[in-house]
Amino acid sequence: VVHAAGDDVLRVGIVGCGGRGMGAAQQALRADPNVKLVAMADAFADKIDGGLNALKSQEDLAEKIAVDNDHKFVGFDCVQKMLASGVDVILLCSPPGFRPAHMKLAVEAGVHVFCEKPVAVDAPGVQAVIEACKVAKEKKLSIVSGLCWRYHPAVIEAFKRLHDGQIGKIV
Question: Is 142:106 a contact under the CB 8 Å cutoff?
Fold first, then answer.
């Protein structure tokens, strides 16, 4: 991955600073020692400030947070402003109706994407995500979605039993 800052630090920005967004931010910051949260965006400033304070209160995360006032982006154009700020990866955790448009903007800007599930809420949104993924592939950008269930051991076992016919007949 090429980093905007030209060093080994992966600069992360998060869109959507509610409960799921802050959970994703915690997970991202704990994923690697060279990750820093550098930008936050939400339609509402109080969500950014509340989320930032909650993250900073966690001892293992505080040193990984470098969000100054110039990198708190508020409003419906917050994603465009964040993408122009020099992030390497954007976490899309805003309400799902916005995610296809935000993903398209991120790919156009050359930024890697983690997108919470669901990635879209309707057929046009799904088509927009598919198109953004095609462009991302051409640009050698990563797009990852939070599909945790398919990795959960109990879910894997349940699907195995279902497909093996142990749970009943699929009609």
Answer: no
Instruction: Check residue 25 and give left, alpha or beta (phi > 0: left; psi -120 to 50: alpha).
Output: alpha
Distance (Å, whole) CA 112 – CA 3: 10
Q: How far apart are CA 125 and CA 30, in angstroms?
A: 30
Question: Distance between CA atoms of 94 and 82, rounded to whole angstroms?
Answer: 14
Among the listed residues 113, 49, 44, the one whose alpha carbon sits nearest the alpha carbon of residue 76: 44
CA 41 remoteness from chain centre:
12
Report the greatest alpha carbon distance in the chain.
57
Q: How many C-alpha atoms does 163 have within 13 Å on its Cβ side?
A: 6
Regarding pTM above 0.90, the answer is no
> How far from 40 is each of 83, 105, 120, 148, CA to CA, in Å?
11, 16, 21, 24
Average pLDDT over residues 63-88: 97
* Contact yes or no for 46/20 (Cβ under 8 A): no
